[in-house]
Amino acid sequence: MAILVLGGAGYIGSHAVDQLVEVGKKVVVVDNLLTGHRAAVHPKASFYKGDIRDKEFLSQVFEKEIIDGVFHFAASSLVGESVESPLKYFNNNIYGTQVVLEVMQERGIKNIVFSSTAAVYGEPKVMPITEKTSTNPKNPYGESKLMMEKMMHWCEQAYGIHYVALRYFNVAGAKLDSTIGEDHSPETHLVPLILQTALGQRKEIVVFGEDYETPDGSCVRDYVHVVDLIQAHLLALEYLEQGNESTVFNLGSNQGFSVKEMVTAARKITGKEIPTRVGPRRAGDPSMLVASPDKACQILGWKPRYTDVETIMTTAWNWHQTHLDGYENK
Ligand code: UDP
């Protein structure tokens, strides 16, 4: 019996594949490699290149392999891009998930662990955000993920497909041995951008706004280490396998760091200057997003280990120093 990891060549998906293999699971990966990297996929996983929206292709994977659970990371995930190209997000994320659920229903597959996002909450006023905080997405990306959660809810009612939706806050860091890490093209995420600046690959970091109502005026986010984040996925799979009810969990650390604090932490870790310039706000950025992870800790028994920002930054720095061109030339 294997776990099918959709989007298993991406940053977060590849860490999931790695940990599943490490705990002895048989793993099957599907990825269209539009943003993922073949080199990021653990050699022990079976790999199928293709798109989840291609139902014939996906059905064939289920035909060839014996799948008993699905991890679903295959989605577009950039807020700004989603505002400019909402239909891309509805097609890839919502339609893609529809096909996944259709195939699961046809094949009688009952468990799916699904990658959701803090963007489903929009801009809540009260921190930390709990799973009871109302959802009110402010961009098509968050809307698409909320819709995907709702699709799973209705498919559970109709077909008994059980799900856990994990709402990620800001995922960062790399595997501790630096074999896999974060490599996007183009890069838009704060931690890799800061470290590329430390390496001299970029001139400066533009701080997107310093007039927010936060202690230093720059946006505050809750950074969670990718290895801890994936640990919660393995626990979520166990939770479903034990027959527990479908639900959602926040994955964060209840600690907020501002953009400027992240740059300061990176200067300390790297010993580099990391020039910054203050620019305008980025459209759609909430001032502060901090999660309460209590529900995941209590119900899943999640125990994040790499919660301090120095560890997150150090593991990411080790990856960047050993992968100057990301997965290229590796
Ligand atoms: N950010 C920034 N400069 C950059 C990239 C990001 O100031 O070049 C800020 C961004 O406004 C946000 C935080 O860093 O407050 C994290 O952004 P990222 O894109 O990494 O993740 P998001 O919060 O959008 O999921």
Automatic annotation (TrEMBL):
InterPro entries: Epimerase_deHydtase (IPR001509), NAD(P)-bd_dom_sf (IPR036291), UDP_G4E (IPR005886)
Residue span(s) of domain NAD-dependent epimerase/dehydratase: 3-252
GO molecular function annotation: UDP-glucose 4-epimerase activity
Cofactor(s), names only, from the UniProt record: NAD(+)
Keywords: Carbohydrate metabolism, Galactose metabolism, Isomerase, NAD
Enzyme Commission number: 5.1.3.2
Superkingdom: Bacteria
Catalytic reactions on record: UDP-alpha-D-glucose = UDP-alpha-D-galactose
Top EC class, one word: isomerase
UniProt pathway: Carbohydrate metabolism; galactose metabolism
Any one biological process term the GO annotation gives: galactose catabolic process via UDP-galactose, Leloir pathway
Signal peptide range: none
Subunit structure, interactors included: Homodimer.
Family assignment from sequence similarity: Belongs to the NAD(P)-dependent epimerase/dehydratase family.
NCBIfam families according to UniProt: galE
Official protein name in the record: UDP-glucose 4-epimerase
